[in-house]
Amino acid sequence: MTETTEKVDLPASVSTTSGVKGLVDAKITQVPRSFHYPSSTLSNNRPSDISGLNLTVPIIDLGEINNTSARNDVVSEIKDASENWGFFQVINHGIPLPLLEDIKQGVRRFHEEDPEVKKNYFPSDSNKKFVYSNSFEDPYKSTPLNWRDSFTCYLAPDPPNPEEIPVACRDAVMGYSKHVMELGTLLFQLLSEALGLDSEVLKRMDCLKGLFMLCHYYPPCPQPDLTLGINKHTDNSFLTLLLQDQIGGLQVLHKDYWVDVTPLHGALVVNMGDFMQLITNDKFSSVEHRVRANIDGPRISVACFFSSSLFPNATVYGPIKELLSDESPAKYRGITVPEYTAGYLASGFDGKSHLSKYRI
């Protein structure tokens, strides 16, 4: 048994390289202690009677976006959701339903490959465009550990060569990412308009410059009340687009309550990232969210982050000048995306806001 294995109290038959899926394949019936979260962290913190509270994440229909009147309504809905929730779901977004199924199946196929195949994609080389990680081998792992395995694919500004992506998900990743970039372009236009600015402002700021895909595989958990799929965090991005399957588990913190983001077939979840809150000077909110573990599974999710992450990007981002005034001065100092990302990752999803460190 390796030193790493002893630290994370794995059964002797399970290798750290096989990930959380390896635990489930070994038919464990108890969650190892290294995954246990305090009961206070796991609590939903919700009153018994929620009938008087509006605890439903907004759903916005983009189907009539080319109609001027309908577009104005959508912009108003996006403004309200971005200010008050930081989250919304979009339907009729233009990405074909078969493509949504293809990417979910591709993610599942890769994660269900032999561990020896997946091991080839561990982050041994910082220039890799496709990286596999799991809770045991993740250099930025949280404490306690999270009940999930993941892969990351860096798509823009430097797209990977197709052969850098595993065959199991290659076509799906390449096809889906093109549509995500198109939808992202539209959403940044609508968000610009929701700020009362020209529709191309956020695009001109290079908010679309970077894109990476983070695809999670949450195996069924024998004791889901003891752990989390992912601990609470905000996103290191301008904007995040999430495709989730029908199993559920995503929750957003709203008015101090954990609210389920109920899966809606064909919908995509959109949320503001830390950089969106920074450049909008708190007009739009990057809010905490998490994923609960589930006895059902595997649960598949595909998160696309508009951020250049750790890749070189010298642009310094601060609050947009048109949004500032004597009554509303800048609340944050400027920072580059790579500098912010390095600190964000080093914090290891400790449940604390990294953005608050840059508040003036």
Helix content: 25-40%
The string of secondary-structure elements, in order, is HHHEHEHHEEHHEEEEEEHEEEEH
Low-confidence stretches: 1-6
Total E-strand runs: 14
Total helical elements: 10
Account of the 3D structure:
The radius of gyration is 20 Å and the shape is globular. The protein is built from ten helices and 14 strands. Strand 8 (250-254) and strand 9 (257-260) form a beta hairpin. The chain has helices at 3-7, 19-25, 39-42, 68-84, 97-111, 115-118, 170-194, 201-204, 274-279, 337-346; strands at residues 59-61, 87-91, 130-134, 149-156, 211-218, 228-233, 239-244, 250-254, 257-260, 268-272, 289-292, 299-306, 316-317, 335-336. The model is unreliable at 1-6 (pLDDT under 50). The protein is α+β, with helices and mostly antiparallel strands and 360 residues long.
Helix and strand arrangement:
Layout: H1 3-7, H2 19-25, H3 39-42, E1 59-61, H4 68-84, E2 87-91, H5 97-111, H6 115-118, E3 130-134, E4 149-156, H7 170-194, H8 201-204, E5 211-218, E6 228-233, E7 239-244, E8 250-254, E9 257-260, E10 268-272, H9 274-279, E11 289-292, E12 299-306, E13 316-317, E14 335-336, H10 337-346
Helix pairs in contact: 4-7, 5-7
